[in-house]
Design goal:
This protein has helices spanning about 20-25, 50-55, 110-120, 140-145, 165-170, 180-195; strands at about 10-15, 35-40, 65, 80, 85-90, 95-100, 125-130, 150-155, 175-180. The protein is of the alpha/beta class. The strands form two sheets. Strands 3-4-2-1-7-8-9 form a seven-stranded parallel β-sheet. A two-stranded antiparallel sheet has the order 5-6.
């Protein structure tokens, strides 16, 4: 497997149905010395508080919190999009929340996060699209690919809802890394060991 040689500033992760199981493998495997920021958009119910920070904070070596509007994007942290808000990365770098219309019936939408990351960080973006039941994230991952960032897609046969990974693979057939959650975690740790994350 060919790994890049440049450093990455942002790891953006998106998913829907089945993605929490994948994240429970990936996020706790990240080392406390990771320098990149990790920003996650999951389709969660819009009408009640998210429990994602409570689920992941005790399991992760990195600090975990829910995004606040206009807060600085800190290296070495894991940030979750709050329910019913799109999460974007903005100049600064900062986090920005939006109540624009849902995309693919979803707010937060993965495409919005991924597009903003590609615009801001270009080739220093690492995008990961996980299990999910619709096509959200495929277009955004294609934007990361076009910006020369690194794209990783959960292997459809390891996803409980393979629609989202398959949509990405139909748009970007040359995705270099189509991996199980355990292999995604291993790849991120290899990049970190090389000083790239």
């Amino acid at each position: 497997m060919n790994l890049p040689t440049r450093t990455f500033e942002a790891i953006v992760i998106g998913g829907s149905a089945g993605a929490i199981d994948a994240l429970l493998t990936i996020l706790p495997a990240l080392p406390a010395t990771l320098r990149a920021s990790v920003i996650v958009a999951l389709h969660v119910p819009r009408d009640r508080p998210s429990l994602l920070t409570q689920v992941f904070a005790p399991r992760c070596a990195l600090p975990v919190h829910e995004a606040q509007d206009n807060e600085p994007l800190e290296p070495g942290t894991i940030v979750f999009a709050p329910p019913d808000y799109h999460l974007l990365l903005d100049v600064g770098p900062r986090l920005s929340l939006s109540v624009d219309a849902p995309v693919h019936f979803s707010r937060p939408a993965i495409d919005i996060l991924f597009d903003s990351a590609a615009d801001l960080f270009g080739e220093r973006t690492l995008g990961i699209l996980l299990s999910g039941a619709n096509a959200d994230g495929a277009q955004g991952l294609a934007a990361i690919d076009q910006a020369q960032g690194l794209c990783i897609v959960q292997a459809p046969d390891s996803a409980s809802s393979p629609t989202m990974p398959r949509a990405a693979l139909s748009l970007i057939p040359q995705v270099p890394h189509v991996l199980s959650p355990a292999a995604i975690a291993e790849t991120l740790n290899r990049l970190h060991a090389r000083g790239l994350l």
